[in-house]
Amino acid sequence: MITSRGEQQQRQHTAGVDPLEAVRTAADPEYDVFLTGTVFLDIIFTGLDSAPVRGTETWARGMGSSPGGVANMATALARLGLRTSLAAAFGDDHYGEYCWDALEQGEGIDLSRSRTVPGWHSPVTVSMAYEGERTMVSHGHEAPPLDGSLPACPPRARAAVASLTPGRPEEWVTDAARQATRIFADTGWDESGRWDLAALPDLEHCEAFLPNADEAMRYTRTSCPRAAARALAEKVPLAVVTLGAEGAYAVDAATGETAEVPAIEVAALDPTGAGDVFVAGFVTGTLAGWPLADRLAFAGLTAALSVQEFGGSLSAPGWAEVAAWWNHVQGCSGQDPAALRRYSFLESLLPTPIRPWPLRRAVPTIGFGRSA
């Protein structure tokens, strides 16, 4: 059987692992996950010892480029083996062509509901990573509205991921919910400062809401992220609050179950996209039917692996990286046996043979073409 380059690349990232194999049936929708949003061209400068100083020229020791924005989440989902469909606008410039090719051919992501916009400049983000943090500068203009020539959006999918913006309900979320698509949502900083859950009307369609601790506490007017999660569980079936270096805490409103999993200690190089990777890991575990604590552990693991690399979509791990990590930590002296058992549920999924640790992700760049 002849496979496309995208399918070949996706198999390489996923190492042939299908986390949903046990639950797939002939009646399944074509896609596991649908998402939509803005794709940026991300240019990442690395090897900086400190932040640039005003009035000086700073040289970086490394640079990479990759699709960013919503592409971070799409890539993370695809690399974990989920059949991912993305609807987005792409400019007809070289940046847009590069991002389209990297996602469709490089990651095997379906772009049949995406479009190329003539004369539209692709949004760009320049990110500078140093001291475990990053500074970003972005430029872009909103894409013109759809002309009605694209396929219906959204398609049937097991799940969809939405980024909720206060005061901006998304019609596609309602449409997806009508199709029995399971909606997972995160959110960003509320620039209005109101932090009013009523300003997130799409929350009523969501199965799970995954804000960070600061966002959760502001929305619930609480001073403790765990209390915030319990308060959010009164609004959504499943509330997951990420706690940064402390891990994550979740409350299942239907069963009353709670779960908390500590974070994995790693040397963080760049946190860009870690939140997207966490959500992708949690969606994967949920669709696979894993217990709540296992879902949190897997999401935290994939996020931890991502911050050890530079960039957003560049750093998203696949199953080969997960397997390499698991093989590595089992051979490390001084490991807490109980902590290792927390991740033993992965053993039946991991591919063989296992490649050596550390396993580096490729750093593509727009400056070089792909050979035939």
TrEMBL record:
Entry keyword Transferase: yes
Q: Which GO terms describe its molecular function?
A: kinase activity
What the entry lists under PANTHER family is as follows:
KETOHEXOKINASE (PTHR42774:SF3), PHOSPHOTRANSFERASE SYSTEM TRANSPORT PROTEIN (PTHR42774)
- Can you tell me which residues the record assigns to a coiled coil? none
Q: Please identify the protein, giving its name as recorded.
A: Carbohydrate kinase family protein
- Provenance organism: Streptomyces ficellus
Residues forming the Carbohydrate kinase PfkB domain are 61-317
Classification via Gene3D superfamilies: 3.40.1190.20
Q: Which InterPro entries match?
A: Carboh/pur_kinase_PfkB_CS, Ketohexokinase-related, PfkB_dom, Ribokinase-like
Entry-linked CDD domains = ribokinase_group_A
Query: Which of UniProt's keywords are assigned here?
Result: Kinase, Transferase
Superkingdom of the source species = Bacteria
